[in-house]
User: Fold this.
Amino acid sequence: MTHQQTSHPRESAVLQAVPTQLLIGGKWRPATGERTYQVEDPATATPLCSVADATPDDALDAVTAASQAQPQWAQHPPRERGEILRRAFELITQRHEDLALLMTMEMGKPLAESRAEITYAAEFFRWFSEEAVRISGDYSVAPNGSGRFLVMRQPVGPAVLITPWNFPMAMGTRKIGPAIAAGCTAVIKPAHQTPLSMLALADILIEAGLPDGVLNVITTTSASAVSEPMIRDPRVRKLSFTGSTAVGRALIEQSAQQVLKVSLELGGNAPFIVFDDADLDAAVDGAMLAKMRNTGEACTAANRFYVHADLADEFARRIADRMAELRIGRGVSDNVDVGPLIDQNQLNKVDELVSDAVSRGAEVLTGGTRHDGPGYFYRPTVLTNVPVEARLSCEEIFGPVAAITPFTDEQAVIDQANDTEYGLVSYLYTRDLQRALRVTEALQTGMVGLNQGLVSNPAAPFGGVKHSGLGREGGKVGIDEFLETKYVAIGGL
Ligand code: NAP
Assistant:
C-alpha cells in the first residue's frame, strides 16, 4: 500500500517498515472500501506514502474491539501492564534513530528535535511502567467509630484518545502510557498530517506484548465524522484530547451526552517575562528554547515576550542575532536548525499574523517573510514594539516568530500576561526570590517556567487552566485521569 516517493535508501527503508493500515482488535486491516490518503512531507510538499482513511464504521469497529478487550485488560496484573510499557520503552530507545527520521519526514522538525521528542515520548512509557504498580486505595475508620471506609481505584473504561500533529509521538505516549498502566483500553486517532509515528508506535506495543484490542489505531481525514460517533457511543467512558481550544470546546459538548470523564490539553498563549534583575544570558538562552523548540509549533511556545525597558533593546538584538544564524531546510540533514511549518494553512496564518503586527507599527529586526522552497518554510522572525492590538498578542502564533514588547511596571506586566483566555504556561526571569514567588502566584497558568525555558517533563503534571484545558498529564496525577474512585461503606464493625 505504501507508495514510496523518496529516493534516499534509508528514508525508503524507514517508510517501508511502517504499517499503513488500521489497527483494530490486534489486526492490521484496510479501511472500509480500501480508502486511503496521502501523507505529505512538509519540507517538499510531496507525498511520502498513503495510509488507511477510516470511516465512521471503522471507528465503531475499533470501539467494539476496545470494549471487548476491556474486562480482561482491567484484570491484567499491574506488574505485567507495567512490563509491557517498559519493553515498549526499550524498543523505542533501540529504534530511536529510525523513529526520529520518520517523524522528521512526516512532520518536518529537524532531526535533533525529533530525537529529543522520541526520548521524551519514550519516557512517558518508562514513567507509567513504574506507576502501574502504585495504584493504591485507602482504608479508614468512620469518624464516629461505627463502620469502615474502603476506597479503591479502578480503570475508568474504554478511552478515545485524539492527538495533534506537533508532537506526533509524545502526545500519544502521554495518553497511552497512563491508559495502559491504569487498565484502560483505547482507540487513538492521530492527526491526519502525522499518522506514521503513531502507527510505528502501535507496532512496537504489539511487539512488546500488548494484548489484542487494548490499543486500536484509526487514521483518517474525516476527524469530526469519525470521532463524534465514538464519543457518543455508550461503551466509551473517557475522552482525552490534545489540540486546539475550538475543537476541545466542541468535544466537551459531544462528551456531555455520555457524561464522559474528559481531559483536555488545549491551546496556549504563553507570556515570557524578563525583569530588569534577570540574568540576561540565561534569559536569552531560555527564550530561544521557549520560542524555537519545534519551530514555535508548540502549545508551550513563548507567544509574547515582555522585557523590562532597560533590557529590551539588548534582549531583542541578541535574540535577532541568534535567530538570523539559524539554518533553514529539510530537517533530515544534521545541518538544519529550522524545518518547515506543518502545512500551507499554518504558513499562511503565520504570514498573516506578522503582516498584521507590522501594519500596526511593529518593527522587524530579522525575518518577517516566507523562505523560498517547495515546502512550508518561514524565516525565524523577531518583531519589536508590538502593539497590544496586534492579533499575535492574543492568538497562538505557532511559528518561529518572537514578538517583543517593553514594560516597566510589575503589576502592569502581570495584568498583560493574564489578559488572555489561555492559561497553559508562563515563563519568568528574575533573580529576586520574593518577586519570583509573588509573580508566580499571580500568573494564571497551570505551569510556570521560573528561570527556565522548558517545562515539559514526564515526571511533572502538565496542563493548563482557563481555556487551556482540564486535567493533567504526566507526573503522579497523570494516571488519575484514567481511574475512577469507588468507595465501599463497610458495616458491622
Ligand atoms: P486541532 O485542529 O484541534 O487538531 C487536533 C486533533 O483533533 C487532530 O487529531 C485533529 O484531526 C482532530 N480534530 C480536528 N477537528 C476535529 C473535530 N471537529 N472533531 C474531532 N477531532 C477533530 O489542533 P491542531 O491544529 O492539529 O494542533 C495544534 C493545537 O494543539 C494548538 O492549539 C496547540 O496549542 C494544541 N496543543 C496543545 C497541547 C497541550 O498539551 N496543551 C499540546 C500540543 C498541542 P485532523 O488532524 O485530522 O484534523
The pocket of NAP is lined by residues 162-167, 171, 189, 191-193, 223-224, 227, 242-244, 247, 250, 265-268, 299, 396, 424, 464, 469 (CB under 6 Å). The chain has a mean pLDDT of 97. The longest helix spans residues 111-131. The domain at 10-266+469-487 is CATH 3.40.605.10 (Aldehyde Dehydrogenase; Chain A, domain 1).
